[in-house]
Design a protein that fits this description.
With 722 residues, the protein is α+β, with helices and mostly antiparallel strands. It has 29 helices and 20 strands. Helix 7 packs across helix 9 and helix 20 packs across helix 22.
Amino acid sequence: MIAPEFQKRLPGADLELVRRAFEYARAAHAGVRRRSGEPYLCHPIAVALILADMQLDQETIAAALLHDVLEDTDVTLEQLREAFGPRVARLVDGVTKLGKIRWSPETEPVSLEREKTRQAESLRKMLLAMAEDVGVVLIKLADRLHNMRTLEHLPPEKQRRIARETMDIYAPLANRLGIGQLKAELEDLAFKYLEPQTYEAIAKALESRGHDRERYLQQVIEQVKQALAEAGIQAVVTGREKHIASIARKMRQKQRNFDEIYDVLGIRVIVDEQRDCYAALGVIHGMWHPIPGEFDDYIATPKENLYRSLHTAVIGPNGIPLEVQIRTHEMHREAEYGIAAHWRYKEQLRPDSGDRSIEAKIAWFRQILEWRDELLDAQEFVDSVKQDLLPEMIYVFTPKGDVVELPAGATPVDFAYRIHTEVGHQCVGAKVNGQIVPLNYKLQNGQVVQIITSKARTGPSRDWLIPSNGYVTTASAREKIRQWFRKQEREENIAHGRHLLEQELRRLGVEMKPEDVLKLFPRYQKLEDFLAAIGYGAITPQQLAARIAEHEDQRVRTASAPAAASTPPPLQVTGLRDLLTRLANCCKPVYGDPIVGFITRGRGITVHRADCPNILHTTEPERIIPVSWGETPQQHPVTIRIEAWDRVGLLRDVTTLVADEGLNALSVLTNVHDDRTVTILMTLEVASVQQLSRVLQKLESIKDVYDVRRVTGGETTAPAPR
């Protein structure tokens, strides 16, 4: 029944395993229907046919037919292994585990930190599945593609969630594996649900000129075929249209309207040999005038996913812009099917399979697996992977003319480490197009970058690892810097780590011992190892702040869990009820801080931070009583000190950020010093230590701000408690 569809796509292949898998899946899914009303079996068949179009092996296609039986039926993994062998069972098990990944919450609200952690864990699971067998992810990509094709049967909110996952994760992953065919369709389908109005506008613009374009392209194809034949070049020439999401992206990137996008219409020229690519380019440039700035040689400089082709744009017949892609048959197969193009030659496609093309395709993936244990912070892991998945790249030149590909936003430090690790370690400066630039300068396309090194410099600066300084954006450079510090004197790293930890605790105004903070990082068993990791940058101050703040807020929530259904007061005094309480002005405690109460004369209980100097030095310790926070966080005032280089617009940037965070500023005091620095004292209403930590980190990222910290009781002038 199903055999002809597969035989048509895989002529001459032994399809016995595929036939058995089809019969097994049909029996397992018997009587089950999809939301669309069609039999459930239609879905695994469609997924398997997508992979058959990619010319994959019969084990992978069989696994595609069976990919939902473990999750949706009573079939066990052991039964699958007995019926179809270990690899098919392993592929189905891998796809089943990937199916349980949740990139974003479906209904329940979650904290920002938990959502980042969820995404990081999902990425880890995806990459680990690829480590076992890349076929797992190829099946998942095909599964996602068919689900996107039938997405109209789901509720709108679910459509948007799945479309966002597709655009953020699956389409970039298909691109990174070089599978242009899947990437284009996944992007277009996701774009249709994420930006329906823009999608419809571009689709109508394309459709309105459809017949004219077909006639025009046929005319161009015939002219190119004839010219190439006269030049003795054998070629296959076809027409092509840029897909809708790509058109929208280019319109935004180049700030042009639809009529100004040169490569909406295009042709593809496929030749036998690489030398014929350049010969064909010469013929086409002889036929029509090339458009300046629209030529790219991805044969000499392949993209990171190893895509190879010549791209040019010309003013074609009737003055209409036309894009031309020129490549060999081998390049075309790799451009369409990427890593899957090598599959037919391998029984199992693994990162260690020995195929150099496969190794190069997923060299980035090897790096990610090596980094995952170092990137303890969820957001850092997510950002690192997405940066490597997403296609926004820039191309800069060495002084010798060699091309270096880097992610958009890369700096001279990233460039130096891409050239060589030692160049990065000895980097003391940089020139761009002959001009000295700071090391955190953002490189642009086409610039010539020269790194200034000094043998007197023995290693990188610790400041390069501080994200807010903006020196390093690539995970590879960051890891090389960490490795250097990891190899340095252990005692030096421990001392520096202790200093950073104490500094972060002071900045947050939190009273914790290093041994207590260690418990928040279960990977480390010994305090010295933990402090050394902070010292060489494996744990950043941002990671420390996030864990400490989350712990403080959780500790308070747990300690103040209600004993009854009644709503607890904002503050609870041990053994006493209905007492008037107020927060001390000297230390301004915030929800989550360790606190104590001080019995005043005639004014109830004044609540201080436990480490408030006025409490520590009181002459009446018998008036100190235990208090705790209520269950529900209340808005409490807290004062922060911002140190910065003075400039026009600084205060505006600070207050705008505070407003964007939804915080209320009770007071703002500024003091400009003779050395052109400025101190800003700002009192904000915050609900928790975690919220405070997030605001402090964001304030530190403002240009010219070099220190932000919480003002504690010891830094304010206040009378003794009474």
